[in-house]
Write a structure and sequence with these properties.
The chain has 338 residues and is α+β, with helices and mostly antiparallel strands. The protein is built from eight helices and 13 strands. The strands form three sheets. Strands 1-2-11-8-13-6 form a six-stranded mixed beta sheet, with no helix packed on it. It has a four-stranded antiparallel beta sheet with strand order 7-12-9-10, with no helix packed on it. Helix 2 (30-39) crosses helix 3 (44-56). The radius of gyration is 26 Å and the shape is elongated. The two termini are 34 Å apart.
């Protein structure tokens, strides 16, 4: 829109059309728009006629209606977020002994609230068997896939394929014992439990009647790495039961109503680092409550649908995640957002 010659009425080009539509949808007063257009060479009657024509256009009217709906949903999300921030649970996930399934589903799963459950998996042999020595003894020479060289790439999640490496279990465990950090990690997408050599590990976990459907065991995903591994802030499209087998992890969560403040991409990832939020870069995060949980060996965390979460290993850690396979009479809900 720059560069118009004084005294020469400019053409109503595409950039002008976009500017006018954006100004009207943003609520800029007609008189302010006319003033700007007059300064750029549009006679006021022409500017007012262009405004009227734009407002009568079918696409503009549809966009105006959809924007109104978006603003209403955004204001509702803001109100619900403000309400949640006043809850005692806004900063700390509750920890409890195993509830009965009805309580678990009614008070947490269907209420879309996280909870850490102690003792739910006490009878799993994995809690006692799965150690570094055990993995070396049973699978030392077996080749596995890991995610490697992550620390030098701020977009290692998006670039997952470029970070795939093959290594023996013995070599991997040696690295765990020697180094901390985010450079070597077996993540769910490495699909260790889906490799035939590791199928027998599934014998060390048990069905959880009333909580997980029997099919869940066959879809377990394993996470295995040293202290210092980090999973960046993201949300998933299903409810997840996250079970800590060995070690401990710090999990920081943000409830779903804060979605507009999290700078997320269409894939559900956020560049916000909950290890230390940069408020200069992400000012909308200033008043966002962050809920925290430390999940220890033998504990299970319900990660509800749509909750954003950031995860850091506090020590050498083995974890399992079960996605969308809860023991429900109905279906497991998924969020189709793109």
């Amino acid at each position: 829109m720059d560069g118009e010659r004084a005294g020469t009425p400019p053409a109503f080009t595409v950039p002008w059309q976009e500017w006018l539509a954006e100004s009207l949808l943003s609520g800029v007063a007609h008189d302010e728009i006319v003033t700007v257009m007059r300064q750029r060479g549009f006679p006021p009657p022409v500017a007012r006629q262009l405004i009227a024509t734009q407002e009568e256009a079918t696409l503009f009217r549809v966009a105006h209606r959809l924007l109104g709906e978006h603003r209403k949903l955004r204001s509702l999300a803001d109100a619900l977020s403000d309400q949640w921030s006043q809850s005692p649970r806004a900063t700390a996930v509750p920890v409890m002994d195993p509830p009965d399934p009805e309580t678990f589903f009614e008070h947490f799963y269907f209420a879309n609230r996280p909870v850490v459950v102690r003792g739910l998996v006490d009878r799993w042999p994995a809690l006692h068997k799965w150690s570094l020595d055990y993995f070396v003894q049973e699978f030392g020479d077996t080749v596995i896939e890991i995610s490697a060289d992550r620390q030098g790439d701020p977009r290692f999640e998006e670039n997952f394929l470029a970070h795939r490496r093959e290594i023996t279990m013995r070599e991997f465990v040696a690295h765990l014992m020697a180094d901390e950090g985010n450079d070597r990690y077996v993540v769910a997408r490495n699909q260790l439990l889906q490799r035939p050599a590791f199928h027998r590990l599934l014998d060390d976990i048990r069905h959880l009647p009333g909580f997980l459907a029997p099919v869940a065991l066959g879809h377990a995903k394993l996470w295995f790495g040293p202290a210092g591994t980090v999973t960046p802030l993201h949300h998933d499209d299903s409810n997840i039961l996250f079970v800590q087998i060995r070690g401990s992890k710090l999990v920081r969560l943000v409830e779903p109503h804060n979605l507009p403040r999290l700078y997320g991409d269409p894939g559900g990832r956020s560049p916000v680092d909950l290890g230390g939020v940069d408020l200069t870069r992400f000012p909308a995060m200033r008043n966002v409550p962050v809920t925290e949980a430390t999940v220890r060996g033998g504990e299970a965390l319900l990660l509800p649908l749509g909750w954003w979460h950031w995860v850091a290993s506090l020590e050498t850690s083995i974890s399992l995640s079960f996605v969308g396979a809860f023991d429900l009479s109905g279906h497991s809900t998924s969020w189709r957002y793109a």
